[in-house]
Amino acid sequence: MASQSGSHAGSKKVIYAAILGNLLIAATKFIAAFFTGSSAMLSEGVHSLVDTGNGGLLLYGLRRAAKPADKSHPLGHGRELYFWSFIVALLVFAVGAGVSFYEGLIHILEPEPVSNPIVNYVVLGFALLFEGISWSVALKEFRTMKGKLGYLEAVQQSKDPSVFTVLFEDTAALLGLIVAFIGISAAQLFNMPELDGVASIGIAIILGATAIFLARESKGLLIGESALPEAEQQILDIAGKDPAIQQANGVLTVHMGPKQIVAGLSIEFEDHLTAPDIEACVERIETAIRQANPDIVSVFVKPQTASIWKIRRQKIIEG
Asked: Quick count: other Cβ atoms within 10 Å of Cβ 229?
């Protein structure tokens, strides 16, 4: 995956584009739902409104995650972004999918013909345009981040949920618009207003599946995921080159935020070293690692034999 060093400028650009697009779309959908009585259109309006609020939560999470370390949070506030990304997933499920399912069920049990269907088609056309622009911005940024990885693999390895959350929300929105169009058209063509409600339930299923996937990815980050293998290997390579090191046994890493990696390094020092020699060696290693990868904010060095490291590492692997 492409390096995640640097600022969150790309993430913020994607979120701002999504907020603006969803705000415009939500307004037009609610107006259309008011004049036509379409259940699918009302569900789509709620979906867009939820997505607008979600964009605000992601921006808030980015701002909170950028706060420096303090006495209460000595390793920084990076996981604030992971927390708010998880909340976004819950909102998509509880509000977006929940309201859509309820509206669909009501309109199936008590079907009402959609009036002025041409308004719905016009609104759907504009919504597809706005949503498509937002989606293309998110897709372009995600392609830059993922490098040569596949899309699913890139999402699973990504430590920054802000971009892929917006991308998946926009993808779900586009699919929802297509389902709404099919449902409204079928209800008019076959004179079966129940199909409008069926489309609303279809939208709820799309949102529910999206929310479950996003919640799963955000949960893993919130609990604590290790850095990418190449970052861990970089740490070991730097440590192993120091003349005072007999062997760099291994490293344990955890992402406290997209750009905040904490590393625990197991090292076997040369036997003849004095305490000042070891202190100087540790300082050299920490400096070299941080210069090579600014995302590594803390390095903890543990003097340890290779045999002990292997035993304890095996226990971690076995769970």
From this structure: 10
Q: Could you report the per-residue pLDDT of 101-159, keeping only the tens digit for each?
A: 988 898 898 887 767 778 878 888 888 888 888 899 888 888 888 778 888 888 888 88
The answer to whether 115 and 35 have CB atoms below 8 angstroms apart is yes
pLDDT in tens, 160-177: 888 888 889 889 989 988
- CB of 207 within 8 A of CB of 176? yes
What phi, psi does 246 have (nearest 5°)? -75, -40
Nearest by Cα to 206 from 226, 227, 223, 182: 182
Contact criterion met (CB below 8 Å) for 250 and 266: yes
Task: For residue 119, count other CB atoms closer than 10 A to its CB.
Answer: 19
Structural tokens at position 318 = 């076995």
* 3-state secondary structure at position 31: helix
What DSSP line would sit under 53-115, residue for residue?
HHHHHHHHHHHHHTSPP-SS-TT-STHHHHHHHHHHHHHIIIIIIHHHHHHHHHHHHS--PPS
Q: How is residue 266 written in tokens?
A: 């197991």
Alpha-carbon span 185 to 205, nearest angstrom? 19
Q: For residue 243, give both structure tokens.
A: 């003349």
Q: Residue 58: phi, psi to the nearest 5?
A: -65, -40
DSSP letter (8 states) at residue 257: E
Beta strands 296-303 and 260-269, pairing class? parallel
Tell how far CA 112 is from the center of its chain: 39
